[in-house]
Amino acid sequence: MKKFILFVFVVVMAVIFLPWLHPRANAAELVKVAKFWVGQSYYVSNDQKVDMDIAPYVNSDDRTLVPLRFLAYALGVQESGVKWDDKAQTATISGNGTNLVFTIGSSNYTVNGSRKTMDTTPVIDNDRTMLPARYVAEALGYDVLWNGDFQTVTVVPHGEDTVAYKGNQVKKLEEVRVVESVMGVKVKPYGISDDEWEFAEPNWETPRWTVNIGKNLDDSFRNIHLGIYPRAIQRYKLADIEVSRFRPIIAAYFPDNVDEICNKAAEDYWKIKGLQAMLENGQKIEYYKFEQKISDIYNPPYIDFKTNVEGFISLDMRTK
User: Fold this and answer.
1) For range 269-294, the mean pLDDT
2) Between the CA of residue 134 and those of 5, 63, 78, 162, what are the distances in Å?
């Protein structure tokens, strides 16, 4: 009996501690969204803005080069997973179960030992190893979204780039991919235009939050409308949402204002819930409203952040 108990104990310990029995246990978690701006010495990873000592740029091959370490860190690779061999002039990135090796001046690289070819080459610039963002990100399990208007590289975990709609395959907007990745939902195309998208929780009458994404009629701007409904949450005793869940969406477009916007949205969320509770208790209340605009509506990125007397919070953003 003692031998049997010992055997069971050994098996249980093996299941817990041996990585080959559950290979994903130690895998790095994919970031929800990362973003680089050409010519800007910072990046955003999830909701954190991080300064760099060199800015990404577009090379003569029309590829965006990003400094090795910052690119790896932005995609969730640990410091120990980034190595530079000065003698061999090779950069190694290990993360998300993938091992990448790039050589300065060579269009060849390896993914888990398998040789691949790029249409550009890594370089050293101001003592920084610069790698093509697309090849690194895609090998680590991400999709790369290039915005030529804003000169930005947005990275989200690999997923659907198109969706079936009215018998066609409709390409998802960058903003749709960001919202889906951050919030863990599927945004659906709707209405008269294939470039209009929406998400609402199953019960339209008592939503906790909604999203609408679309293009202007002149096709030059895109809009993201995030709606948060604290009065409905209080009235119908729905589960609270953490306003911080929206932070990576705000950070991807307003990295300098993310704290200001999200802290105020969280403050208003609890203020509105409190006022609704007072109203339900028969108390008189003064209806609260707030509005703040950042940037110019004709010069995006722009946001109109409102809490209205009807008791919901809207974050209306405009991008290109």
Assistant:
1) 95
2) 52, 8, 19, 19
